[in-house]
Amino acid sequence: MYTCSVAAAPPPPPPASFPPQGPFRFGRADGTILAPSIQLLPGGLIDGYSNPNESRWGLEGKTLVFYDQQGNATTRFTSVQSKDGRLVLSGAFLGNMPGITHVLVQFAP
Predict the structure, then answer these.
(1) Model pTM?
(2) What is the mean pLDDT of each run of 10 residues along the chain (109 residues)?
(3) Separation CA 39–CA 21 (nearest Å)
């Protein structure tokens, strides 16, 4: 019997406009504002906010992810929506405080 195995294709690259251009308001779904204005800079830097839980950003496929100082994922922004012309990304905080949802709201383009 003949079998053929094919390696899985790598995921497609994210669209050229991803990560989306900021600035963003960073907060929680309950309305708490953690930073009124942050920027996602090249090389994974986050400008405008300093916290050990959100030290860097990156992409896992097309999913925006925040990482802590040790490189562990702390938030995966799995929901991407458009509201009033703004991009709204949200995802569960993966740290030691269950039930928190982080939200990034893009300033009006």
Answers:
(1) 0.80
(2) 42 48 92 96 93 94 94 95 90 90 88
(3) 8
